[in-house]
From TrEMBL, chain B:
Domain Response regulatory: 8-120
GO molecular function: DNA binding; phosphorelay response regulator activity
Protein name: DNA-binding response regulator
Modified positions (4-aspartylphosphate) in chain numbering: 59
Organism expressing this protein natively: Niastella vici
Origin: domain of life: Bacteria
């Protein structure tokens, strides 16, 4: 009978919790559900309740509020559960839970859905699953601190009762009792605690609790009253206070009758009291009625008890023959009870075993989960580290690249300046001027004028050229020509030169001062101390993105050059070698400098310099 | 009495225009006769070997080496030498350390004449002079020795042996540790320049002191005492330099 309480109270509790989590929702269905539907359910008026719920559906759908919808679905589930249509009840409960899982962030709807599912599953004897859902609801309830917790305790107690786990029953009953805040809930727990004590034969403790119930007049409900009176009466009668017990029992049964809730147990209990009072006739009549009820309930144990009670009744009336017959019947039903209890035990074992397995599964799942979580955490950390590493590496590489790039530019710049300085500050200027002085002293006016002209032009061009990373090929060739002309005079026509440029488009730009150092080498080093007249041939042609430059002389070649005497010669060569490497990296085009002593190749004397120079187009 | 035989001269200079100029200038100087000119170390060595010249006009920078290369390879040196150089600070200082004559390019006619007159009376170079100059030039580090040229001879002294130098009528007297002194034909200013960056300190327009020989200093009196007791005046204008020197020592 207390089951009815659960359903109703759970329904109400969930609604109230739902309401709590969603404070003042305008036009909420909740108050309505609570006020109109709950009483109907409490009174088992499922038909009326269903009608009202059906009529609410359009509004619920229109409002599209998940709290309302979950509550409505749960109400429907309760209706079907009360009607015994457990599959349908399960369907609605599932939908409610599903919706809650999708939408609910407060966990309250999820909790309500879970505990309801547990309840229905308990009715369906899927105790392991029921326990699973019940526990989940329990943990949610503990986390979110809800007044629904006692009811969940009750639910769990109910499931454990079905399983037959006494310690767990006691645990949840007392937890529920302690946590109950409303007298209503407390009473329910007290009733169940009394029943529990009865079950473990602690009638005194049970009485204590039940008397406590009587102190409470705050709650008025016929079912509750019926249960209260009947149970208290039965307990008193068991304790030997049959008369006092009887008055309570009669009170209770009267209420039950009014509700149409009479059952075999009630009659059996009442009969027992009468039997104690010696009113065997009434006892017999009541026991027969109980038998009539119990045959519908298929409760073998109770049937056995009734038959035993009948036998006792007959025996006390000294009617031993019928008493034996009654005992036979009792024995028969005892056999049935044992059989069925074996089945029940088997089922319990199965349930327990299932539960254990389930527990292990959950544990291993939790363990796997934890391991997975740790793994994921590690992976996350690793990913973060790797990402950070990559980013830092990237930045570093970028920095290095930029640094290198800048360095290259700076290096090229400094090399260029070095060449320029070399030209201006070295002997060249002072030699030129000293030479010019000689020419003037010798009275060679024309030569002197030429020297001044070329020197002026050369310096103007070199200065302008050396400031830019790229200059037009024409300007560079002008500078080269000026240089050669000047040297020709200063060397008293000690050499001839020829510059040959193959036809190429306008606007070709090359790095300045690339060619001149090689011409200089030929003049200063190649022709020095040589009797034969020097000859420099410069040939330039274009091929795709590079210029081929060849500077050839007929000088003395490299002989003696390997010694440290010719530092300047190798210095300018090294500088230009490096400039070409930088240029190659900058333009991503192969650049090359090859210097060969022709003696080793063609057998002629002199040096052949080949340059592959990447060029740019102007603009 | 026969006039002295003219000095036989070889010019080693790589730029023909300058070489011609030198030939031209030399041609105008009585008492000198040009016996050869060349542009490289290699040519020069051959020429010197075969002609044994009295005087070399020697360019420092040559296509296949330096003037020092020539001097080092012609042993014993029996020639007087005048170096020719463009304004290369380091080469000049090296040459002066060796107390060797030199001429700056472009050539100044008066300097040219003066240098020729000077060497005509001088002795051929000492090997030590060449060593000091060429080592200073090669290693780009001045040597610890200095060639001092007096009227009569050239003497090599270690820098640490010089106590102080005193200006004396356009000449410079170098006082050495142990009381010896050498009168050189150079100005004190030349030595101040030459010894800049060493331990020498100009305390007075007439005095250049080796700092390592200073015993004590009387700022008020403006007098420095050397270890041997010599009093060296400190002029007002040089006081700051001396003060700074002592501050550094502290």
């Amino acid at each position: 009978m207390h089951r009815i309480f659960f359903l109703i109270i759970i329904c109400a509790a969930c609604n109230s919790t739902g309401k709590r989590s969603q404070p003042p929702v305008a036009d909420s269905m909740l108050p309505f559900l609570k006020q109109r539907v709950n009483p109907l359910l409490q009174n088992l008026e499922t038909g009326t309740a269903k009608k009202i719920l059906d009529s609410l559906l359009p509004f619920i759908e229109k409002k599209d509020n998940y709290v309302d919808r979950c509550s409505w679905l749960r109400c429907m589930a309760v209706v079907y559960q009360l009607e015994g249509k457990l599959d349908s009840a399960r369907l609605y409960a599932d939908r409610s839970l599903q919706l809650a899982l999708e939408k609910d962030t407060t966990q309250r709807q999820i909790m309500a859905g879970k505990i309801q599912t547990a309840d229905i599953m308990g009715d369906q004897h899927s105790l392991d699953s029921a326990l699973h859902y019940g526990r989940e609801a329990y943990y949610i309830a503990r986390n979110i601190d809800t007044p629904g917790l006692p009811l969940i305790c009750l639910k769990l107690y109910n499931i454990y009762e079905k399983i037959g786990d006494l310690p767990m029953q006691k645990k949840y009953l007392f937890e529920g009792f302690m946590r109950s805040t409303s007298p209503k809930h407390k009473t329910v727990f007290a009733a169940n605690i009394a029943e529990y004590y009865d079950k473990v034969n602690e009638v005194d403790s049970a009485l204590l609790f039940f008397k406590a119930l009587l102190q409470d007049s705050s709650f008025n409900n016929p079912y509750y009253d019926a249960v209260r009176y009947e149970t208290l009466g039965a307990l008193l009668s068991k304790k030997g206070e049959a008369k006092e017990g009887l008055s309570y029992q009669v009170k209770g049964i009267a209420i039950s009758r009014g509700l149409g809730e009479l059952n075999a147990q009630s009659y059996f209990n009442l009969a027992a009291t009468y039997r104690k009072l010696g009113e065997f006739k009434t006892d017999k009549a009541l026991l027969d009625t109980a038998l009539a009820y119990v045959s519908k309930e298929k409760n073998w144990a109770l049937q056995k008890k009734i038959w035993r009670a009948k036998a006792e009744n007959l025996a006390r009336q000294k009617k031993f023959e019928p008493a034996y017959t009654a005992m036979d019947s009792a024995a028969f039903y005892y056999q049935k009870e044992v059989d069925s209890s074996i089945i029940v035990q088997a089922r319990e074992l199965e349930a327990r075993y299932g539960l254990l397995e389930r527990d292990n599964q959950i544990k291993s799942l939790a363990l796997a989960n934890k391991a997975g979580e740790e793994m994921r955490e590690r992976q996350r950390k690793a990913i973060v580290r790797i990402c950070t590493g990559i980013v830092i590496l990237g930045l570093l590489l970028f920095g290095i690249w930029r640094g290198k790039h800048k360095k290259r530019l700076a290096r090229e710049e400094s090399l260029r300046q070095q060449l320029l300085r070399g030209q201006i500050e070295s002997h060249f200027l002072s030699n030129s001027i000293s030479g010019l002085q000689g020419i003037i002293r010798a009275g060679e006016t024309e030569g002197a004028i030429l020297v001044v002209q070329q020197l002026g032009r050369l310096y103007q061009l070199s200065h302008a050229n050396a400031r830019e990373p790229f200059v037009s090929l024409n300007k560079e060739l002008d500078a080269l020509t000026s240089y050669l002309k000047l040297q020709q005079i200063l060397f008293y026509n000690g050499f001839d030169y020829h510059i040959d440029v193959e036809a190429m488009p306008e606007g070709i730009m090359i790095p300045p001062m690339l060619l001149q150092p090689f011409a200089e080498n030929a003049i200063l080093h190649g022709f020095a101390g040589q009797q034969e007249k020097g000859q420099i041939n410069i040939h330039i042609k274009k091929d795709n993105s590079v210029l081929y430059c060849i500077i050839e002389d007929n000088g003395s070649g490299f002989q003696g050059v390997e010694t440290n005497h010719n530092q300047k010669r190798s210095l300018s060569t090294l500088i230009n070698q490096e400039r070409l490497q930088i240029l190659s990296r900058q333009t991503k085009t192969a650049a090359k400098l090859t210097i060969v002593d022709k003696k080793a190749t063609t057998g002629e004397s002199g040096v052949r310099v080949e340059l592959i120079v990447p060029y740019r187009m102007e603009g | 009495m026969n006039p002295p035989a003219p000095l036989r001269v070889i010019i080693v200079e790589d730029l023909p225009a300058i070489r011609k100029d030198l030939e031209y200038l030399l041609h105008q100087q009585p008492g000198f006769t040009l016996i050869g000119a060349c542009a490289t170390v290699r040519e020069a060595l051959v020429l010197i070997q075969s002609t044994r010249p009295d005087l070399l006009l020697l360019d420092i920078g040559l296509p296949d080496g330096t003037g020092f290369d020539i001097l080092e390879q012609m042993r014993p040196v029996q020639s007087k030498v005048i170096f020719l150089t463009a304004h290369q600070e380091y080469a000049i200082k090296a040459i002066r350390y060796g107390a060797i004559d030199y001429l700056l390019k472009p050539l100044d006619l008066d300097e040219f004449k003066e240098a020729l007159q000077r060497v005509s009376h001088a002795q051929p170079l000492l090997e030590e002079q060449i060593a000091i100059a060429s080592q200073s030039f090669r290693k780009q580090k001045l040597q610890d020795n200095l060639a001092l040229r007096s009227q009569q001879c050239v003497q090599i002294v270690g820098l640490e042996d010089i106590c102080y130098l005193q200006a004396d009528n356009g000449c410079t007297t170098v006082f050495l540790n142990g009381g010896k002194k050498i009168v050189t034909t150079k100005f004190l200013k030349d030595y101040e320049e030459l010894l800049s960056g060493t331990s020498f300190l100009r305390t007075h327009h007439s005095y250049l002191i080796n700092g390592t020989y200073i015993d004590r200093y009387h700022p008020k009196k403006g007098v420095l005492y050397l270890k041997d007791g010599t009093e060296i005046p400190v002029s007002l204008r040089k006081k700051e330099i001396v003060d700074l020197h002592f501050k550094k020592l502290l």
